[in-house]
Amino acid sequence: MFSEARNDLTSMRICTNYSRNLAVVMSLNKSMHPRNRYKDKPPDFAYLASKYPEFQEHVHTNLSGRAVVNFKEPEAVRALTCTLLKEDFGLSIEIPLERLIPTVPLRLNYIHWVEDLIDGQKQPRRGIDIGTGASCIYPLLGASMNGWFFLATEVDDICFDYATRNVEQNHLSDLVKVVKVPQKTLLMDALKEETEIVYDFCMCNPPFFANQLEAKGVNSRNARRPPPSSVNTGGVTEIMAEGGELEFVKRIIHDSLQLKKRLRWYSCMLGKKCSLAPLKEELRKQGVPKVTHTEFCQGRTMRWALAWSFYDDVIVPSPPSKKRKLDRARKPLSFTLPHVAVKELQVKARALGCTGRHPLEAITTLVEKTLTELRVLHKRVPCREQEQSLLLTAMENTWIHGRQKRREQMRQLRELPRAHQSAAAAATTPSLAQNKHQDATQEPADQQVTDNNAPSVEGAEVTNTAGDVDQERLEKVAGDDVEMTPGCSTTGPMDATSETSSKRATSPGSAEHFVLKCLLNVLHEESDAVIEMNWVEGENKDLMNQLCTFLRNTLLKAVAKSGTE
Questions:
Q1: How many whole angstroms separate alpha carbon 544 and alpha carbon 532?
Q2: Distance of CA 376 to CAs 52, 493, 514, 536, Å?
């Protein structure tokens, strides 16, 4: 029976995580370009697998019965790209695994943004794709969708051969011209033989990384971010360049200052948001009159694009709406506790003395218990029926590295009896040298040992007769159900941002100095329960994300513990 309970719990966690991830991806898809065909209708993997055998072998069914693809496998990513291009655009392409495998929704976002730049997607237009890659995806999409003419440049021999073959087998050679150019060639050399043609735009996926370490995520990725959800493929010339994408785009800017009105719009896609500001500043310094930018959002992947023009009559699309960003930032964090978990938590709450019959009351009681242990100030606030609400105020971040802090405190407390024993031994058996040189003004030896060698634990009473007190404190720190007065610290000296205990607030409403304020709602959703956290104010919204994760893990551990007892 216990093994069945554990299996049910495991399945519950997987389904909950999948539902949460799916909800995140779907919400991000809403930020795609309005004309992107995948914005409101993500690819149906099950349908595509039934139609394309070469794709079917990379589709798996998860525990919830949904068809999924492992984006860590290059073969699976390639199969998906080729299948989407065939199904939705009638394009047949080949891509080697050792070269960059593009994702279709992202490339489609870029194409639609270029349509906005040049004001019209169906008119004959001329564009340049700098570094077209083996797939030649931008020219193929632009030519097949809009009838655009493309000059596609490539420096890599393998990419050039595949791009040429992909254009020919889709019968688009009259619209797309693939040219092999020397290394480090951008726009100047590619256009030196075409002095009369004015192009409407250029597109470019610059190499994102400056070296191998950056390509592997070393020193280029925030340590708090999770690892990428998809595999990183691509040849050296496709993913790395001297100085990374920042210097690569600056070279395109340098070429544009010489070419100027040979192109109506210059554009590049960026892999790092931090590259956007310095490039915009470079364009400002160079006196470029028309500059705009945007963001491409698809699934969990974000990209940014920059465009500039020397023409006065171009229509400049507005940058992303700040209101949309604020609305997205205000969306609450939430997680779901399925019915089986809610029942186990009710039992757990009753064992702790909760008398409320409604499941939300039981979950709220357990959340309050955890918040008390974390020394997070909280109070219940008025709310709707079938709902519980708590106003939370955290004076400091107590939910990260709490286990390490407790272990260190336990280690220090264990050392206290040893320190007392050493002090007593030193007092009763002083060395011969100490007996000869000790005078009447010298302090007792046991006091010296206490001051110099005993570990310092704030609030700990260090005396030779404090063994019982130390043991009591050790048991209190080690216990799972320690109740602490909100605002009191037992983890060591307060940092510079903490107030003394006499000045700390005793309720969320009266707190003046805090790191986080948020509203926590416990909601009823059919037979499940949902915990929702809404940002109010504080130092960093990541703190609320961390606290939300801590509460979720704590409740799930309580369910797991009940299932094994």
A1: 11
A2: 54, 18, 10, 15
Helices (H), 41-131: 45-51, 53-56, 74-89, 104-118
- Quickly list H helices, 313-454: 322-330, 339-351, 359-373, 402-428, 432-437, 445-453
Burial of 225 (0-12, 13-18, 19+ CB in 10 A): exposed
3-state SS assignment for residue 373: helix
CATH classification of the domain holding 338: 3.30.310.80
Amino acid 184 reads: K
Is residue 151 located within the same domain as residue 249?
Answer: yes
**β-bridge partners, 308:** 266, 291
Same domain for 368 and 231, yes or no, is: no
Q: For residue 327, give both structure tokens.
A: 């609305």
Q: Give me the domain span that covers residue 465.
A: 401-423+446-504
DSSP assignment, residue 461? -
Regarding pTM above 0.85, the answer is no
Whether residue 104 is predicted with pLDDT greater than 80 in this model: the reply is yes
User: Does a structural domain hold residue 79?
Assistant: no
pLDDT band at 381 (very low <50, low <70, confident <90, very high): confident
At position 121, the amino acid (one-letter code) is: Q
Q: CA 149, CA 15: separation in Å to the nearest integer?
A: 47
Pair of tokens at residue 405: 């802090």
The predicted-structure confidence for 529-544, as pLDDT tens digits, reads as follows 999 999 888 888 889 9
pLDDT computed for residue 439 by the predictor = 44
Do 362 and 412 lie in one domain? The reply is: no
* Predicted confidence (pLDDT) at residue 432 exceeds the cutoff of 80: no
Q: Both tokens of residue 74?
A: 């290059």
Look at residue 329 in the predicted model and tell me its pLDDT: 53
DSSP state at residue 265: E
For 500, counting Cβ atoms within 10 Å of its Cβ (0-12 exposed, 13-18 middle, 19+ buried), the class is: exposed
Residues 451-499: tens digit of each pLDDT: 333 333 333 333 333 333 333 333 332 333 323 333 333 333 333 333 3
Same domain flag for 466 and 512? no
**Residue 308 located in a structural domain:** yes
Tell me the HSE value of 89 on the side-chain side, using a 13 A CA sphere: 26
Strand order in the sheet with 387-394: 333-337, 528-538, 516-525, 387-394, 377-380
How far apart, in Å, are the Cα atoms of 40 and each of 35, 105, 229?
10, 12, 21
Q: How many of the other CB atoms lie within 10 Å of CB of 377?
A: 24
CB within 8 A of 540, min separation 6: which ones? Answer: 515, 516
Residues 333 and 544: beta-carbon distance below 8 Å = yes
Specify the DSSP element, H or E, that contains 550.
Answer: helix 541-564
Are residues 241 and 281 both part of a single domain?
yes
Distance separating alpha carbons of residues 531 and 97, to the nearest angstrom: 43
Please, are residues 149 and 127 in contact by the beta-carbon 8 Å criterion? yes
**Distance between CA atoms of residues 323 and 318, nearest Å:** 13
